[in-house]
Structure formats: structure tokens, C-alpha cells
Design a protein that fits this description.
Layout: E1 2-7, H1 16-27, E2 33-37, E3 43-44, H2 48-53, E4 61-66, H3 71-82
Antiparallel strand pairs: 1-4, 2-3, 2-4
Length: 88
């Protein structure tokens, strides 16, 4: 199992536009990716509703997890995405 911890870089957190950008990217991965914030149970990274319910805010520590072939590459790309401002 691969795992990445990243600090959320979007000033508006993971709401609406930033969440949609992240969910779309996660949906295109060949591995199942989950995302968790502050000890909350992980949710599917390709679920808009799941990601929105996390309530992730700017500066929160986000944990991405994936398993299988391509997990490391998928997490690397998604972690880089979350660390940037996605609401510009």
C-alpha cells in the first residue's frame, strides 16, 4: 500500500471547484485512491460527495492512499495537485 501526506494548498479548501478538479484527476487513475483528513475515515478520491464531506480546509494535512500497480505514480500526481492553489 502506498501513502502520501500533503498539506492542502487551496486557500478555499477542498470545496466546489478545487474538489471537482481533484476528483476528476482521481477518477482517471487506474488504481483506487482514498483520501482522509484529520483522522476522519477515508473516502474514495473519485467521489465528489465524499471529498466534499471531508471539510478539508487550507493548510489541512491530507492523507492519500492507493494500492496496486501504478499506486506510487498516481499518489505522486494527486499529491502535487493538492499542494497547489486549485481555485485560481
Amino acid at each position: 500500500m502506498a501513502q502520501r501526506v500533503v498539506i492542502l494548498g487551496s486557500r478555499s479548501g477542498l470545496h466546489a471547484r478545487p474538489a471537482a478538479t481533484f476528483v476528476q484527476a482521481a477518477a482517471h487513475k487506474t488504481v483506487r485512491v482514498t483520501v482522509a483528513v484529520d483522522g476522519k475515515p477515508p473516502v474514495a478520491a473519485d467521489s465528489m460527495l465524499g471529498v466534499m464531506t471531508l471539510g478539508a480546509a487550507y493548510g489541512d494535512q491530507v492523507t492519500l492512499t492507493a494500492e496496486g500497480d501504478g499506486a506510487e505514480a498516481a499518489l505522486e500526481e494527486l499529491a502535487a495537485l493538492l499542494s497547489k492553489e486549485l481555485d485560481a
